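Question (not urgent): is this output format expected?
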Amino acid sequence: MTGHDTDTERTFAALPPAQGRGFARTWWGQAWLRALEDAALDSGQVKTGRRLARAGAVGAVSVRAGRITAVVLDRDRTPHRADVLLAELSAEQWDRFLDLAVERSGHVAALLDREMPTHLVEDAASAGIDLLPGLGDLEPECDCGAWDHCGHTAALCYQMARLVDQDPFVLLLMRGRGEQSVLDALQARTAARVEEASAPEGVDAAEAYAAGDILPPLPAPPEPPVVPGFPPALDTEVPPEPGVDPVAVRHLAARTAVEAHRLLTEALRPHSDQPTAGIELSAAQDAVRLAIDAPDQAVAERLAEGSGRDPESLAVATRAWELGGAAALAVLEEEWVPDEEGEVHARACAALRSAWDEDERPTLRAVGHRWTVVDAPVQIRLGRDGRWWPYRREEGRWVPAGPAALDPATALASAESASAQPQG
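Got this back:
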């Protein structure tokens, strides 16, 4: 593609005709075209330029700081020299841009992958540095004598969109710095940050240990955030890859933020209240966790199908999860029978005997780990950890009615209270 390169000028051989494809597929290439199409006073000239570029009438493109140049063949094959100018960044703007680029580790990696990071462009714009051209920034010059964009400069802009699409360093060259210059500056800044971060701090470990009795106490751990954070925005204007559902990806990111907040909150608990050990979830269990606050019906249906449930079963499972996580879900969906000779069964029977006075004890029918009140739409279920869970009958289905309780009477009272409330 490239005829010859230096760090201050790059020349790209003429590209083949662009029949049957768009000139720009990336969001930054489309932004380049918008700067042309929104600013041109004569839309007919823009259409002419698009036809010329699509037909392969644009010759080799020379790109250097502040200017691109090419010979464009008119429809009658008359050659015209077309130039498009774009203001260079000042030295101060370049310094600020390069500082912004190394602030996030992903920015440099994205540039090396020939991608323009959305957040880098947004951060630069907030600092008064416009990387992408805006309305009126693409200034045309053509030997055909037109004072505004003509078909020749428009064709050059369309061809340039294809080049910028493939390599954002072409745009940076127009703004005043070649690729190697940019990479060298980024490497120098990255090395300086690493050196600064690796500078020794504090005192020698042996000295610190020897002075342990006079050192101040460690600071208290920070307070966890009140609510989970928000995941990064996905509105990059780039169409998703086939098979990628942006709504589902956005929901996964949001649920990940919720889980990270939970883990952080547990990690910052006082030592007297150690967090419980993490439980590795099955795919069916994790689908229930992810179904909480599903953004639309399509995502909920996908989670239901992927976990072997119908939408109604998934909704009930989600309610259980919100009440008690994986433990509550196990009580809902697992079938088990307390060993009659075991400790769990003995404790359960003792709890049932002592929960009510003789004349107040409800008539319960036991099946496995479930005790249902005879002739009433309420039930209590025993978890493997010995806690009792209230359930009620709702539209022909047993559903969780509240959080767990340590004794069966409290759980049954919760089930009866929930059953008395209107269902809906």
